[in-house]
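To whoever is on call:

I kicked off a structure prediction for a single chain this morning and the downstream step that reads the tokens threw a length-mismatch warning. I double-checked the sequence; it's 165 residues and nothing unusual in it as far as I can see. Pasting both halves so you can look.
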Amino acid sequence: MKLEEMIIEILASHDGIKTKDKCRVIRERYNENVDMSVIREILYNNLKDRVYQDNRYRWFLVRTDNSNQLNHISENDKSNTLISRLMSYYLECIAQDYDDGISEFAKSRYDLPAYAQINVLPQYANDANVFYRENNLNRVLNIIKASHGRTVVYITVKVKVLRAS
């Protein structure tokens, strides 16, 4: 069996698997020792149209059954208002990042949360300086800039925080 076929079979039987785990499965299942660089080369070159990688470095087969729940709405049914376009974008972002497990403490031990609540969009604010000063936004933006691209920014709608009893 070719290595490409082994990789496809492993991806079909596992729901997201890292390259190092693929090496282990190939060793156990097929009794072959394969270097991770060889597997990566096949994934990035030969199978690039058939597989994708999430931001946790797990590999998946590209689905061809169109099971995405957002695809069932026809283009004629979608409204073209600003709010409908915004919500469509938001839902697409959620669908892509659904398995990321985004979480943040409501209050940090230093009383400086790693998030900012935006009450009004900047283009609708009366004073741009006030917009960036209020609600921790300037501090959070500085943290993002200082991370040099290592920090991922998520914009979400309000959520209800429940207290543990």
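Update from on-call: the warning came from a stale cache, not from the record. Cleared it. Sanity check on the structure: DSSP finds six helices and two strands in the chain.
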